[in-house]
Design goal:
Shape: globular
Number of helices: 7
Helix content: 55-70%
Strand order of the largest sheet: 4-3-5-6
Radius of gyration: 23 Å
Number of strands: 6
Oligomer: single chain
Structural class: alpha+beta
């Protein structure tokens, strides 16, 4: 009568030795967050996905089990780690600090950056910042404020990427978050705006 219990205990001991659970950077959630924030700042936000749409496959948890007893192993793991817990979580971007930074970025974009982007004076860079492309493209009244506008925008971006990483409990994620935002700024750039690719060359959208 004790054989089933002994077998279960043996299986649990085996799983404890051969199961590795690795929590990865939630890239899909970071991409979703970047799309939302960049869209809001640039005024190109898209409508949220309709309710009831299928969630993306989980990618934040990896389970590596031994070869024997796969069926029982999966059943035991489902008991120990419910499938819902293994799903990739949303990235938290709703803290007061992040919302305040986003509001500043939107105001700075509307007042300063948008005219400079339209004129080709500045562009997005491959590291998630903005940079001066051609100061001569700015009108005389614009030129005096270009450097300040760029510096302010890049401080806001640095603050945003760091704040998102910290709000999600992983300050070390900041470079990964920055990289995803860098792609998203360029992706959402309007036709005619400039961006600088990874080789340093300026290209027009």
């Amino acid at each position: 009568m004790y054989k089933p219990l002994i077998l279960l205990a043996a299986c649990l001991a085996l799983l404890a030795g051969c199961v590795t659970i690795n929590v990865y950077f939630p890239a899909a959630a970071a991409q979703k967050a970047a799309q939302q924030i960049v869209g809001n700042v640039l005024g190109t936000a898209t409508s949220p996905a309709p309710a009831g749409s299928s969630p993306a496959p989980a990618s934040s948890t990896s389970i590596n089990a031994g070869s024997g007893g796969a069926g029982l192993g999966v059943a035991v793991l489902d008991f120990i780690i419910p499938p819902a817990a293994a799903a990739e979580p949303d990235m938290n971007i709703s803290t007061p600090g992040i919302q305040a930074i986003e509001a500043r970025m939107k105001a700075n974009f509307e007042q300063n950056l948008e005219p400079l982007l339209k004129a080709g004076v500045i562009g997005f860079t491959a590291n998630g910042n903005v940079a001066v492309r051609d100061l001569n493209a700015a009108s005389l009244p614009q030129r005096a404020g270009v450097s300040q506008a760029v510096a302010s925008a890049n401080r806001e971006r640095a603050d945003l990427y760091a704040a998102i990483a910290s709000a999600n409990g992983h300050p070390e994620w900041e470079p990964r978050i920055r990289a995803i935002f860098a792609q998203t700024w360029i992706q959402k750039a309007r036709p005619g705006w400039y961006y600088r690719d990874s080789s340093g060359a300026w290209r027009r959208k």
